[in-house]
Design a protein that fits this description.
By secondary structure, this protein is of the alpha+beta class. The protein contains 21 helices and twelve strands. About 2% of the residues have low confidence.
């Protein structure tokens, strides 16, 4: 069983691009596909279902950039990613994108057919939100691969013939499964790949066609016998009955169990993340430039107006708005950001936490504790709902970020565990039903405003909780409601660019203007012409 990790599912990845469910997730899928071909790729056919989100958003929201970067073996924060077409062209990689009915059950489904001179492989994977993925099929074999293990795939027509050899080394594996699809294989999950002597022995039997090694793509691995102290807020409260720990310490205990980490390792890993967040905010305030976006750099002027006294006094709120805006502008200019919990909602949580911390004069350790607390609220959301706007609307992204930030702010202001949980519950309740309708098919607007709203909501709900306002509905029940509401939002209003603001006349005019700015067919590289939809 796989459990959410603060550093896998909630706070991260460190990345470039407008969307974690499109860019970072696609890149991880591409990395796995590259491993499946042993790094030797000549041609790739990419299929997106016309009823899914990727059919209309794969280019503008960064799926192409992420997937192609992954196929090239790049990391999610690689500075070459904005120039992915050039990279593909230099590598001589032929990629075709087809919009076809592939009977996909999930809106973020990638079906890849991979070729080189000696073999062809098929792989289907889905993006789960926040950069998380699952490979659900390889070469006709339904399977489960999250990118949190070293995975060895042993291709053999007669699995039983080599099982005795594997059983002799069973202690080295976490899990062994036989799959009898189009090309039968044995899937082995472990903390390492097969030892060299065992690999040689298997190949010498004459029963094994190939052995593939799929590297993990997540920072926190899974392992055999993995257990966590609690999975819901109610279970956490029961666990904490005799301990009376604050939320951040409970988060630390959870991640120590989940990631097999020491208390210091958890704390310092979060410190490195909040430092990246602050660096991104500072960079945004200095001003950002990027040609292919619909909103320019606005946060420097906001800071100037704030310092000149031209804005309605807001103290912490105006500081938060500035920081949220700066982070969102770094994202839209392809700078390095942390998806928290997603790239589309990357401004609300760090903007709120760092903004309030600055106004309260808190040191870096307190920001680490706040972000750990936010991370644990995110774990409960990941367990009971989703971070994917394609599944749950903007409520899943900005709504989640708002609930996480509310708990963090309440803690930073001296609130106890009960008040932090109340703040999170109230913020999530206020976010129910938010749709995802990106203007001009870009993750910039109304995303900026909704990130600011999410952070403002978080600050308000934290103060309400500190003033003993009654949240009424326990956090677990609110999260279950989020999931139910998300499932009932119309397909067109869940990040498909088929409804809401995305189909207004002005939105469509902006999108046409952006397409013309790319230069039409004459301005495209040879690689770009190849990627036209078939």
């Amino acid at each position: 069983m796989s459990f959410p990790s603060i550093f896998n599912d909630v706070i991260g990845p460190v990345m470039r691009g407008p969307s974690s469910s499109h860019c970072a997730a696609a890149l991880r899928i591409g990395r796995i596909a590259r491993d499946l071909m042993g790094g030797d790729l000549h041609q790739v056919i990419v299929q997106y279902d016309p009823n899914g989100s990727l059919a209309t958003t794969h280019k503008s929201q960064g799926s192409d950039m992420g997937l192609f970067g992954g196929l090239l073996g790049w990391d999610a924060d690689d500075d070459r990613l904005p120039h992915y077409l050039k990279g593909v062209e230099e590598a001589g990689l032929d990629i075709q994108i087809r919009i076809e009915d592939i009977q996909a059950d999930h809106p973020n489904t990638y079906k890849l057919t991979l070729f080189n001179e000696t073999e062809m492989r098929e792989m289907t994977a889905i993006s789960l939100g926040g950069g998380m993925i699952e490979v659900i099929e390889i070469d006709g074999n339904p399977l489960h691969m999250m990118g949190d293990y070293n995975e060895s795939l042993i291709y053999t027509e007669r699995p039983e013939a080599i099982l005795p050899i594997l059983e002799a080394a069973a202690n080295a594996f976490d899990e062994v499964k036989i799959h009898r699809g189009r090309l039968p294989l044995i899937q082995i999950k472990g903390q390492a790949f097969l030892p060299a002597d065992l690999r040689t022995k298997l190949l010498q039997t004459g029963e094994v066609d190939r052995i593939k090694e799929i590297h993990p793509v997540l920072p926190v691995r899974s392992r055999q016998g993995l257990a966590v102290p609690f999975r819901t807020c109610a279970e956490m409260l029961a666990f904490n009955q005799q301990k009376n720990w604050p939320l951040w310490k409970l988060a630390q205990a959870y991640e120590m169990s989940r990631g097999d980490l020491s208390a210091d390792e958890v704390f310092e890993q979060m410190r490195s993340i909040i430092q990246i967040m602050r660096s991104s905010i500072d960079s945004g305030i200095q001003g950002t430039t990027y040609e292919d976006r619909i909103l320019g750099s606005q946060s420097p002027n906001f800071q100037e107006q704030m310092q000149s006294g031209n804005l309605v006094p807001g103290d912490a709120l105006n500081q938060v708005i500035l920081f949220v805006s700066a982070m969102m502008e770094v994202k839209s200019s392809m700078g390095v950001i942390v998806a928290a919990p997603t790239a589309g909602s990357c401004g609300a949580l760090p903007g709120a936490v760092w903004g309030v911390a600055e106004r309260l004069g808190l040191d870096e350790d307190e920001v680490v504790k706040a972000m750990l607390s936010a991370g644990l609220i995110g774990v409960f959301i990941a367990e009971g709902a989703t971070f994917a706007a394609e599944v749950g609307g903007c409520m899943a992204e900005c709504g989640s970020g708002s609930g996480m930030a509310a708990a963090a702010i309440a803690q930073m202001a001296g609130g106890d565990l009960s008040q932090a949980l109340s703040a999170a519950s109230q913020a999530l309740q206020n976010s129910l039903g938010m749709i995802c309708d990106p203007i001009a098919n870009r993750v910039e607007a109304p995303c900026l405003g909704r990130n600011v709203m999410a952070a403002s909501n978080a600050l308000s709900c934290a103060n309400m909780a500190l003033a003993q306002y009654d949240a009424l509905i326990p956090l677990d029940e609110v999260i279950a409601t989020m999931d139910a509401v998300g499932n009932s939002i119309a397909h067109e209003l869940r990040c498909t660019a088929l409804g809401g603001l995305s189909i207004t006349k002005t939105s469509q005019e902006i999108e046409k203007r952006l397409q013309m700015a790319e230069g039409g067919e004459e301005g495209l590289t040879t690689a770009a012409r190849r990627f036209k939809i078939c």
